[in-house]
Amino acid sequence: MSKLHKLTIVVVSLAFFAACEQDDLVDTLPLRDRAVQQIADRDSLLSYLSSHYYNSGDLMALTNPSEADIVIESLPEDGNLPDPENQTLLIEAVEVHTTTYLDVEYEYYILRIRQGGGDERPHFSDDVRVQYSGSYFDGSIFDSRVNPEELDLTYLVPGWSRVLTQFNVAEGFTSNPDGTVTYNNPGVGVMFLPSGLAYFDGNGAIPPYTNLVFKFALFQMSINDHDADNIPSFLEDIDGDLNLASDDTDGDFNFNFNDADDDGDGVLTKDEDLEPDTDLTVDRDGDGDPTNDIGDGDPTNDDTDNDGIPNYLDPDSTGSRLD
């Protein structure tokens, strides 16, 4: 398993804060307070960004840079850049962002090399095709993918769902004679994450309370509908906190994004879609006639009793398109 992946969702905590392979932690430490730890993490990150630089000149000269072309090094002892015209201090180039996760406000940083030339940006719960490398502050790499790999942002450390959603995918790709693919103008950058947006209290060989650096190239994305209920998973974030593990409308300990009957009324969410069908070319019910289907493919716009709660979240509305 890639170290980037986290445990599939811990029901007891109702949040994505537990990392996989917890039994394999090298050291077991008392769980620290997240709000206190983020202060220490911020100081550590700012110190790192102030004492390291990247090869900005080299990257600007490349037509199609990748994450592997990004070189980050520490300043020499005299504190001066060896080649100021082609190197830039990270602290002078990164973007500062904030987000709230598990009721704690975190600061994280992005070095944006290329925005990406495609039209799409992933949502926080989508699949992405990426290459990446994850490293510690000393530059040692703990995980990497040198070939494009598809990952589900839902199950990755929370920093990824904050950062990759701010980049565009590649504008296209070229098939090579050897069977490989070259992606043209992908989103390329580096994320600098506090431990609270990474693995916090550890993950396997990654020590607890460790800030991490991820270089990445974003190639493609696809929208996830984990429970196949015709509602994209990012829309199942009812409270808008970017945490799918905090939305459980019917209280059955099965989160909405993974629950085919969100309100627990016995009618599948996809069947609470009663709006007139506007797409007369798709045969939704499979009867051979695409013009007689009930439902427009979107359960979120149906509110039979006009109480402001869509049918799929309203246990009092039990109408089904199959009736």
Secondary structure layout:
Blueprint: H1 34-50, E1 52-54, H2 56-61, E2 72-74, E3 88-89, E4 95-101, E5 104-114, E6 127-135, E7 141-152, H3 158-163, E8 172-175, E9 181-184, E10 187-193, E11 212-222
Please describe what this structure looks like.
9% of the residues lie in helices and 23% in strands. It is mainly beta and 323 residues long. It folds into two domains: 22-222, Chitinase A, domain 3; 226-323, no CATH class. The strands form three sheets. The protein has a six-stranded antiparallel β-sheet. It is globular.
Give a quick set of tags describing it:
2 domains, 323 residues, six-stranded antiparallel sheet, Chitinase A, domain 3, three-stranded antiparallel sheet, mainly beta
Question: What topology, given as strand order, has the largest sheet?
Answer: 4-5-10-11-6-7
Number of helices: 3
Based on CA inertia axes, which overall geometry fits?
globular
Average pLDDT reading:
90
As a percent range, the share of strand residues is: 15-25%
CATH class annotation of the largest domain? Alpha Beta
**CATH architecture type of the largest domain:** Roll
Helices and strands, in order, run as HEHEEEEEEHEEEE
Total beta-strand segments: 11
- If you consult CATH, what is the topology of the largest domain? Chitinase A, domain 3
Q: The biggest beta sheet, please?
A: 6 strands, antiparallel
Number of domains in the coordinates?
2
N-C termini distance: 45 Å
Low-confidence stretches: 6-27
Helix/strand structural class? mainly beta
Helix fraction, binned, reads: under 10%
Cα Rg: 23 Å
